[in-house]
Amino acid sequence: MSRPPKTTVIFSNVPSDWIVGIDLQFFNSNAVLRGIKLIPDGIHVVHWAPDSSSVRSGFYFEAKEASVNVIYWDSANEKMLINEEIGEINVVKEIDGLSQSYPFMIAYPEDDTWSSLTRFIEFRQVNYMLPGTSNVMDSVLTSTDENNILLDAIKRGAEQRGTGNLANDPIVNSIIDQTEEEIKYTPIDLSKTVRPNSTPEEKTHDGIDKSWYLNNLITVAYNGKESLLLGEFQLAYINTIIFANYSSAMHWLKFLRVLFYCQDATKQKVAFFEKLLTTLCVMLEKFPEEYADEFVDHDFFEVSLAEFEFTVKDLNLHKLVKKVIDIKNVLLARFSINVQGIVEDEEEDGPVIVEL
């Protein structure tokens, strides 16, 4: 048969009773299931695990018209092989057999939420940040930033022990050797939010207001494109809720620890912050309950969102005030987080003025 419409993912030799899925959907594999069909254009992730307590793995791909991906479980090596990893001849064989396997595939479960949660991610970010050539992700991968912190600590320990030549230290080398198996998120160092060569006044200001750090991050790390920052913010979130990846959860929170404390930038970049808050609200609505206690920091949201609320009220940014109220409602309804802030006072019950 000619290649089917949209994008198809072929399952080959995937064991029965595994928990497999695509994007935010999870289901059990069986002896009949042969894959997923009619996947719409855009960024998607297929994922799998033997059971709910096992390490979850998956791979990202960019769906395009008439494209086909193949995943094959190599039982001898206990590894999922993706596309070229199974060999060109085997890929062609799987595609040639689509006419037999296509009726035994499930159609992509349409979900508008997925588009909202990935709208800013560019696939080149996925290619760069995830290890290897197949854009594979799993629950236990760590970030470059996290590995560097660990490496520095180990080096200091080795120096204190008088180990000698660090180049021959096996513990140090075990961390260095992981550089090809780590997530290359943009480093966010919350201890370096003060601009270099700053005056005393600037140091005081930057200690309270992280706008300089945010603007510098956008300029240096994202080539001036705010959307790339939002894309990485979304990618960290997706890796958190699908894979329960700890490094990704910490990275996601680091973004918020910067963004909620940017008074000057909030006034300068209203459209950017409106996109951020809209995205964050959807994120919190879809955050899995089973991960909430581990990854949703109650104290942080209670304090930091209240601070941000004060900022947008003080600046009379009514569009952002409304977005903050939406987030507060989600936090209260889903996680029993009650953010006490200015809008809780006498104006809380009054109408919210929205600029058009």
TrEMBL record:
<dbReference type="InterPro" id="IPR038516">
    <property type="entry name" value="AAR2_N_sf"/>
</dbReference>
<dbReference type="InterPro" id="IPR007946">
    <property type="entry name" value="AAR2"/>
</dbReference>
<feature type="domain" description="AAR2 N-terminal">
    <location>
        <begin position="6"/>
        <end position="130"/>
    </location>
</feature>
<dbReference type="Pfam" id="PF20981">
    <property type="entry name" value="AAR2_1st"/>
</dbReference>
<dbReference type="InterPro" id="IPR033648">
    <property type="entry name" value="AAR2_C"/>
</dbReference>
<dbReference type="GO" id="GO:0000244">
    <property type="term" value="P:spliceosomal tri-snRNP complex assembly"/>
</dbReference>
<comment type="similarity">
    <text>Belongs to the AAR2 family.</text>
</comment>
<dbReference type="InterPro" id="IPR038514">
    <property type="entry name" value="AAR2_C_sf"/>
</dbReference>
<dbReference type="InterPro" id="IPR033647">
    <property type="entry name" value="Aar2_N"/>
</dbReference>
<feature type="domain" description="AAR2 C-terminal">
    <location>
        <begin position="185"/>
        <end position="339"/>
    </location>
</feature>
<protein>
    <submittedName>
        <fullName>CYFA0S17e01926g1_1</fullName>
    </submittedName>
</protein>
<dbReference type="Pfam" id="PF05282">
    <property type="entry name" value="AAR2"/>
</dbReference>
